[in-house]
Amino acid sequence: MDDNAPTRGTPVGRRLVLGMLGLGAAGVAAGPVLSRALDSVLSGIAEKDPTGLTGLLPNAGGFRYYSVTGPVDAKSATDYRLTVDGMVDHPVSLTLADLRSMTQTRLVHDVQCVTGWRVPGTPFEGVRLADLLDAAGVREGATAVHFTCFDGLYSESLTLEQARRDDVLVALKMQDAPVTHDHGGPVRLYVAPMYFYKSAKWLSGITLTSDVQRGYWEQYGYDIDAWVGKSNGRDDAPTS
Protein backbone atom coordinates (compact mmCIF):
# COMPACT_ATOMS: atom_id res chain seq x y z
CA MET A 1 0.00 0.00 0.00
CA ASP A 2 1.59 3.27 -1.11
CA ASP A 3 0.33 6.85 -1.47
CA ASN A 4 3.10 7.72 -3.93
CA ALA A 5 3.66 5.32 -6.80
CA PRO A 6 1.32 2.30 -6.76
CA THR A 7 2.70 -0.94 -8.18
CA ARG A 8 -0.56 -2.89 -8.36
CA GLY A 9 -0.61 -6.04 -10.42
CA THR A 10 -3.60 -7.79 -11.88
CA PRO A 11 -6.28 -8.21 -9.19
CA VAL A 12 -6.05 -11.69 -7.70
CA GLY A 13 -9.00 -13.30 -5.93
CA ARG A 14 -9.48 -15.60 -2.97
CA ARG A 15 -8.96 -18.82 -4.95
CA LEU A 16 -5.29 -18.10 -5.66
CA VAL A 17 -4.62 -16.91 -2.11
CA LEU A 18 -6.14 -20.06 -0.62
CA GLY A 19 -4.22 -22.12 -3.15
CA MET A 20 -0.99 -20.81 -1.64
CA LEU A 21 -1.87 -22.47 1.69
CA GLY A 22 -0.06 -25.71 0.94
CA LEU A 23 3.24 -24.00 0.25
CA GLY A 24 3.02 -21.88 3.39
CA ALA A 25 2.06 -24.80 5.59
CA ALA A 26 5.00 -26.81 4.29
CA GLY A 27 7.42 -24.12 5.37
CA VAL A 28 6.00 -23.97 8.88
CA ALA A 29 5.72 -27.71 9.42
CA ALA A 30 8.94 -28.97 7.89
CA GLY A 31 11.36 -27.43 10.34
CA PRO A 32 14.09 -24.79 10.34
CA VAL A 33 16.10 -26.01 7.35
CA LEU A 34 13.21 -26.15 4.91
CA SER A 35 11.73 -22.99 6.40
CA ARG A 36 14.93 -21.04 5.70
CA ALA A 37 15.02 -22.45 2.18
CA LEU A 38 11.38 -21.52 1.65
CA ASP A 39 12.02 -17.97 2.87
CA SER A 40 14.85 -17.65 0.35
CA VAL A 41 12.66 -18.85 -2.49
CA LEU A 42 9.78 -16.61 -1.45
CA SER A 43 12.05 -13.58 -1.27
CA GLY A 44 13.03 -14.12 -4.88
CA ILE A 45 9.42 -14.56 -5.92
CA ALA A 46 8.29 -11.51 -3.95
CA GLU A 47 10.69 -9.27 -5.85
CA LYS A 48 8.77 -10.13 -9.04
CA ASP A 49 5.29 -10.16 -7.47
CA PRO A 50 3.44 -6.84 -7.91
CA THR A 51 0.34 -8.21 -6.15
CA GLY A 52 2.04 -8.55 -2.77
CA LEU A 53 0.36 -11.93 -2.29
CA THR A 54 3.61 -13.78 -1.63
CA GLY A 55 3.86 -11.66 1.50
CA LEU A 56 0.86 -13.50 2.87
CA LEU A 57 2.90 -16.68 3.27
CA PRO A 58 4.36 -17.28 6.74
CA ASN A 59 8.06 -17.22 7.51
CA ALA A 60 9.65 -18.92 10.50
CA GLY A 61 8.51 -16.10 12.79
CA GLY A 62 4.87 -16.61 11.87
CA PHE A 63 4.04 -13.21 10.37
CA ARG A 64 4.53 -11.97 6.81
CA TYR A 65 4.53 -8.26 6.00
CA TYR A 66 2.65 -7.11 2.91
CA SER A 67 0.72 -4.32 1.25
CA VAL A 68 -1.53 -4.17 -1.80
CA THR A 69 0.24 -1.25 -3.48
CA GLY A 70 3.94 -1.51 -2.65
CA PRO A 71 5.95 0.55 -0.13
CA VAL A 72 3.97 2.82 2.21
CA ASP A 73 5.33 6.08 3.60
CA ALA A 74 5.53 5.97 7.39
CA LYS A 75 3.61 8.35 9.65
CA SER A 76 5.27 9.80 12.72
CA ALA A 77 3.64 10.68 16.03
CA THR A 78 3.51 14.32 14.92
CA ASP A 79 1.89 13.85 11.51
CA TYR A 80 -0.46 10.92 12.22
CA ARG A 81 -4.20 11.63 12.32
CA LEU A 82 -7.23 9.37 12.73
CA THR A 83 -10.54 10.85 11.63
CA VAL A 84 -13.94 9.70 12.89
CA ASP A 85 -16.72 11.04 10.68
CA GLY A 86 -19.75 10.18 8.60
CA MET A 87 -23.04 9.65 10.44
CA VAL A 88 -21.82 10.99 13.80
CA ASP A 89 -22.74 13.98 15.95
CA HIS A 90 -19.15 14.99 16.68
CA PRO A 91 -16.62 14.36 13.88
CA VAL A 92 -13.07 14.41 15.22
CA SER A 93 -9.47 14.22 14.08
CA LEU A 94 -7.37 12.42 16.69
CA THR A 95 -3.61 12.55 17.13
CA LEU A 96 -1.54 9.66 18.39
CA ALA A 97 -1.25 11.48 21.72
CA ASP A 98 -5.05 11.72 21.89
CA LEU A 99 -5.40 7.97 21.40
CA ARG A 100 -2.68 7.21 23.96
CA SER A 101 -4.49 9.32 26.54
CA MET A 102 -7.63 7.19 26.31
CA THR A 103 -8.40 4.03 28.28
CA GLN A 104 -6.36 1.15 26.85
CA THR A 105 -7.58 -2.46 26.61
CA ARG A 106 -5.21 -5.42 26.22
CA LEU A 107 -6.32 -8.61 24.46
CA VAL A 108 -4.44 -11.85 23.83
CA HIS A 109 -5.74 -14.14 21.08
CA ASP A 110 -4.37 -16.19 18.22
CA VAL A 111 -3.97 -14.40 14.91
CA GLN A 112 -5.37 -16.43 11.99
CA CYS A 113 -4.62 -15.64 8.36
CA VAL A 114 -7.04 -16.78 5.68
CA THR A 115 -4.10 -18.48 3.91
CA GLY A 116 -3.83 -20.90 6.82
CA TRP A 117 -1.05 -19.77 9.14
CA ARG A 118 -1.72 -18.90 12.76
CA VAL A 119 0.35 -17.04 15.35
CA PRO A 120 -0.79 -18.09 18.84
CA GLY A 121 -1.20 -15.86 21.89
CA THR A 122 -0.54 -12.50 20.26
CA PRO A 123 -1.18 -9.47 22.52
CA PHE A 124 -2.81 -6.34 21.09
CA GLU A 125 -3.53 -3.21 23.09
CA GLY A 126 -5.44 -0.05 22.26
CA VAL A 127 -8.72 1.84 22.44
CA ARG A 128 -11.94 -0.09 22.14
CA LEU A 129 -13.59 0.93 18.89
CA ALA A 130 -16.91 1.08 20.72
CA ASP A 131 -15.51 3.83 22.98
CA LEU A 132 -14.53 5.96 19.98
CA LEU A 133 -17.96 5.48 18.43
CA ASP A 134 -19.71 6.44 21.67
CA ALA A 135 -17.58 9.58 21.99
CA ALA A 136 -18.41 10.61 18.42
CA GLY A 137 -22.14 9.98 18.90
CA VAL A 138 -23.57 7.54 16.34
CA ARG A 139 -26.54 8.99 14.51
CA GLU A 140 -29.81 7.18 13.91
CA GLY A 141 -29.70 5.23 10.67
CA ALA A 142 -26.02 4.29 10.89
CA THR A 143 -25.64 0.52 10.67
CA ALA A 144 -22.01 0.01 9.64
CA VAL A 145 -18.46 1.32 9.99
CA HIS A 146 -16.07 1.79 7.06
CA PHE A 147 -12.30 1.96 7.58
CA THR A 148 -9.74 3.62 5.33
CA CYS A 149 -5.96 3.53 5.44
CA PHE A 150 -3.17 5.99 4.71
CA ASP A 151 -1.76 3.77 1.97
CA GLY A 152 -4.54 5.34 -0.10
CA LEU A 153 -6.15 2.08 -1.22
CA TYR A 154 -6.90 -0.50 1.47
CA SER A 155 -10.28 -0.45 3.20
CA GLU A 156 -12.47 -2.62 5.41
CA SER A 157 -15.96 -2.59 6.94
CA LEU A 158 -17.86 -3.99 9.90
CA THR A 159 -21.49 -3.86 10.87
CA LEU A 160 -22.15 -1.50 13.77
CA GLU A 161 -22.94 -4.51 15.98
CA GLN A 162 -19.60 -6.12 15.09
CA ALA A 163 -17.72 -2.85 15.64
CA ARG A 164 -19.11 -2.53 19.16
CA ARG A 165 -17.72 -5.90 20.28
CA ASP A 166 -15.34 -5.85 23.24
CA ASP A 167 -12.67 -7.63 21.17
CA VAL A 168 -12.39 -4.99 18.43
CA LEU A 169 -9.64 -2.43 19.01
CA VAL A 170 -8.00 0.56 17.45
CA ALA A 171 -4.62 -0.89 18.31
CA LEU A 172 -1.53 1.09 19.31
CA LYS A 173 0.49 -1.88 20.58
CA MET A 174 1.17 -5.36 19.23
CA GLN A 175 3.21 -7.98 21.08
CA ASP A 176 3.51 -5.48 23.97
CA ALA A 177 5.35 -2.86 21.91
CA PRO A 178 4.19 0.03 19.72
CA VAL A 179 2.79 -1.24 16.42
CA THR A 180 5.63 -1.00 13.93
CA HIS A 181 5.21 0.45 10.47
CA ASP A 182 5.54 -3.00 8.86
CA HIS A 183 2.72 -4.27 11.06
CA GLY A 184 0.48 -1.34 10.13
CA GLY A 185 1.50 1.27 12.68
CA PRO A 186 1.40 3.61 14.29
CA VAL A 187 -2.29 2.61 14.52
CA ARG A 188 -4.12 -0.37 13.05
CA LEU A 189 -7.48 -2.03 13.43
CA TYR A 190 -7.64 -5.32 15.34
CA VAL A 191 -10.71 -7.54 14.95
CA ALA A 192 -9.89 -10.51 17.16
CA PRO A 193 -12.50 -13.08 16.08
CA MET A 194 -12.14 -12.55 12.32
CA TYR A 195 -9.52 -13.47 9.73
CA PHE A 196 -6.58 -11.08 9.84
CA TYR A 197 -7.44 -9.25 6.60
CA LYS A 198 -10.23 -7.55 8.55
CA SER A 199 -7.61 -5.97 10.88
CA ALA A 200 -6.71 -3.14 8.52
CA LYS A 201 -3.15 -1.80 8.67
CA TRP A 202 -2.20 1.91 8.60
CA LEU A 203 -5.63 2.98 9.84
CA SER A 204 -6.49 6.60 9.06
CA GLY A 205 -10.29 6.88 8.83
CA ILE A 206 -13.38 5.56 10.62
CA THR A 207 -16.62 6.48 8.87
CA LEU A 208 -20.14 5.64 10.05
CA THR A 209 -22.34 4.61 7.12
CA SER A 210 -25.92 3.56 6.45
CA ASP A 211 -24.86 0.18 5.04
CA VAL A 212 -21.83 -2.08 4.80
CA GLN A 213 -19.36 -1.15 2.07
CA ARG A 214 -17.17 -3.92 0.71
CA GLY A 215 -13.53 -3.73 1.73
CA TYR A 216 -10.53 -4.17 -0.56
CA TRP A 217 -10.36 -7.97 -0.51
CA GLU A 218 -14.14 -8.42 -0.41
CA GLN A 219 -14.25 -6.86 -3.87
CA TYR A 220 -12.25 -9.89 -5.04
CA GLY A 221 -14.40 -12.54 -3.40
CA TYR A 222 -13.44 -12.63 0.27
CA ASP A 223 -16.28 -12.88 2.79
CA ILE A 224 -17.52 -9.65 4.38
CA ASP A 225 -18.38 -11.49 7.61
CA ALA A 226 -14.99 -13.14 8.12
CA TRP A 227 -15.46 -15.12 11.33
CA VAL A 228 -12.55 -17.51 11.82
CA GLY A 229 -13.78 -21.04 11.15
CA LYS A 230 -17.07 -19.90 9.63
CA SER A 231 -16.10 -18.17 6.38
CA ASN A 232 -13.96 -18.27 3.25
CA GLY A 233 -14.47 -22.04 2.98
CA ARG A 234 -12.13 -22.73 5.90
CA ASP A 235 -12.69 -24.66 9.13
CA ASP A 236 -9.92 -23.23 11.35
CA ALA A 237 -10.55 -23.27 15.09
CA PRO A 238 -12.02 -19.94 16.28
CA THR A 239 -9.54 -17.44 17.69
CA SER A 240 -11.79 -16.36 20.56
TrEMBL record:
Q: Name one Pfam family in it.
A: Oxidored_molyb
List residues of the Oxidoreductase molybdopterin-binding domain: 71-217
PROSITE patterns in UniProt: TAT
Q: Which residues form a coiled coil?
A: none
Gene3D superfamilies in alphabetical order: Oxidoreductase, molybdopterin-binding domain
Query: InterPro entries recorded for this chain?
Result: OxRdtase_Mopterin-bd_dom, OxRdtase_Mopterin-bd_sf, TAT_signal
Superkingdom of origin organism: Bacteria
Species source reads Kitasatospora nipponensis
* Protein name per its UniProtKB record: Oxidoreductase molybdopterin-binding domain-containing protein
Q: Which PANTHER family match?
A: OXIDOREDUCTASE MOLYBDOPTERIN-BINDING DOMAIN-CONTAINING PROTEIN, PROTEIN-METHIONINE-SULFOXIDE REDUCTASE
